[in-house]
Amino acid sequence: MSTTKLLAKHFNEVYFGGNWTCSNLKETLEDITIDEANFKIADFNTILCLSYHIHYFVVVQTTFLKGLKVKASDKLSFNHPEINDEIEWQLYKNKLWKEAEEFIQLLDQLEDDVILEDFIDPQYGNYFRNINGLIEHSHYHLGQINLIKKLARIQLS
Fold it and tell me: What is the pTM of this model?
C-alpha cells in the first residue's frame, strides 16, 4: 500500500474508527449533547471549540489538495460558530463527516511521488509532515474532548 493511501486510511480511522486507540471523533461526538458541547470548565476549550479546531486544519488541507489558494491562520482555528441547539449541532457534525470524507478521497487519490514535496510553502515542510501532523493533532485533541466529555457529564448530571 502506498504512503498516501496509508495516510488516508489512518486519517479515516481517527475520524471514523478502526484505529488501535479504539477512539475516534465520530463515535466520541455522536452522543454529546449541545449542552455538553458548550460546557465550559476553567479555562479549557469547549468540545465545540476543539471539534472546530481539529477540523479547521482538515478544511485547510482539503483546500490545498483541491489546488485552491489557502488562506489560513492558527488564530482563526478557534473561531468556531455559535451553536445553541441540538439540530444545529447535528448539522454541524454532519458537515464535519462529509468534509472529512472528501479529504480522505483526495488523500486516497494523491500520488505517492508528491509525499516529500513542499506542502503549501517550504516553511511548512512536506506533504507527509503535514498530513501525518494533522492525524497526530486530531488524536491529541480527541483525547481532550474525551476528558471534557467525562467532566461535563459529571457536572451537568
Answer: 0.95
Per the rule left: phi > 0, alpha: psi between -120 and 50, beta: everything else, 125 is left
Rounded Cα distance between 48 and 45, Å, is 8
- Residue 21 pLDDT: 87
Report DSSP state, residue 35: H
Kindly state the cell numbers that stand for 2.
Answer: 502506498
What is the CATH number for 132? 1.20.120.450
Backbone φ and ψ for 126, nearest 5 degrees, come out as -95, 175
Q: What is the DSSP string of 62-87?
A: HHHHTTPPP---GGGGG-PPP--SHH
So what's the pLDDT on residue 157? Answer: 87
Please check whether residue 145 is in contact with residue 152, taking contact to mean a CB–CB distance below 8 angstroms.
no
Which residue type sits at 2?
S
Instruction: Supply the range of the domain harboring residue 78.
Output: 3-156
- The closest of 53, 92, 89 to 73, measured between CA atoms, is 53
- Residues of the chain with confidence (pLDDT) below 50: none
Q: What is the pLDDT of residue 115?
A: 94
The amino acid that residue 17 corresponds to is: G
Tally the domains of the chain.
1
Q: What does the alpha-carbon distance between residue 9 and residue 69 come to, in Å, rounded to a whole number?
A: 26
pLDDT of residue 121: 87
